[in-house]
Amino acid sequence: MKLTKQQIAIGIAALVMVGIIAGIIIYIVTREIRETLTHTNISNAPAAKGDNMKIEHSNQYNQSVRGYRNNNPLNLRISSNNWKGKVPVSENTDGAFEQFATMAYGFRAALKNLQSYINKYNCNTIQAIVNKWAPASDGNNPTSYASRVATTTGYAVTQTVAANDKEKLCKIAYAMAIVENGSAPQMADVYAGWNMI
Question: Are 157 and 111 in contact (CB under 8 A)?
Answer without folding.
Answer: no
